[in-house]
Specification:
By secondary structure, the protein is mainly α. It has helices at 15-34, 42-63. The radius of gyration is 19 Å and the shape is flat.
Amino acid sequence: MNEHLPPDDSEFATPQEAEAYDRWFRAKVKASLADPRPSIPQDEAMASIRIKLEAKIRETQRHSR
């Protein structure tokens, strides 16, 4: 799984940027997998986000009147 995109298919300006992003991303994944906290089911996470988003929308609408 160590495939590399041809340079013209990369979203990064340089190979160094791509490598830096790859290192950062892999570190994030490793940290997430090592996190001892219990996982949150997708539906619970989305419900929580939806509630916060709806509150923020209401707040923004209230202030824009």
